[in-house]
Amino acid sequence: MEEQFVLRVPPSVAERLDRLLGENASTDDKSLDLSFEEDGRTGTFVVGNDRFPASLLDLPCVVESFKTYDDSVLIKTADIGQMIMVRDSSDAAPDTVEYRHGLTPPMRDARKRRFRREPDLNVSLASLHWNILFAILL
Questions:
Q1: Which stretches of 69-138 are assigned E, i.e. beta strand?
Q2: Ranges for the TAFII55 protein conserved region domain (predicted)?
């Protein structure tokens, strides 16, 4: 298995990355760096001389990645559960560690719409119910 991640960047940064990875990149724009702080969730993405804030976010579900060598057979290469989101310096930092939406529009607000809600369980009330049930059975 390969190590992979999803990198989501603003459109302006995407254009620069496209030029950087292409053959017609200038020499001063060739630097590319990603570093994280001690918390492991916030960091800095550097393209050329520009710095952009970045965050490591958990995806609501696991995404599989595939590779093909002959355009007919797909080989699974990784399970991806996290995304590095690069944002403009004017955008606010995310307040949670989990990204609410998936990678595609149909997965918008995926946790709320597609997965079961965790039960609201009061521990003291549940233990009382179990004690009453055991007392009745005995």
A1: 74-86
A2: 1-127
Distance CA 16, CA 51 (A): 13
- In sequence order, which residues have a C-beta less than 8 Å from that of residue 102 and are 6 or more positions away? 59, 60, 61, 63, 108, 110
- Helix (H) / strand (E) element for 14: namely helix 11-21
* Separation between Cα atoms, residue 97 and residue 42, nearest integer Å: 10
Give the largest CA-CA distance in the chain: 81
Question: pTM for the complete prediction?
Answer: 0.70
Q: Is residue 85 within 8 Å of 94, Cβ to Cβ?
A: yes
The SS3 of residue 24 is coil
Question: Cα separation of 103 and 85, whole Å?
Answer: 11
CATH 2.40.128 corresponds to the domain 6-99: yes
pLDDT digits (tens, 9 = 90+) for 64-109: 999 999 999 999 998 998 999 999 988 888 888 888 787 888 878 8
- pLDDT value of residue 135: 66
Beta strand residue intervals within 1-138, DSSP E: 6-8, 32-36, 42-47, 50-68, 74-86
> Which residues are bridge partners to 90 per DSSP?
none
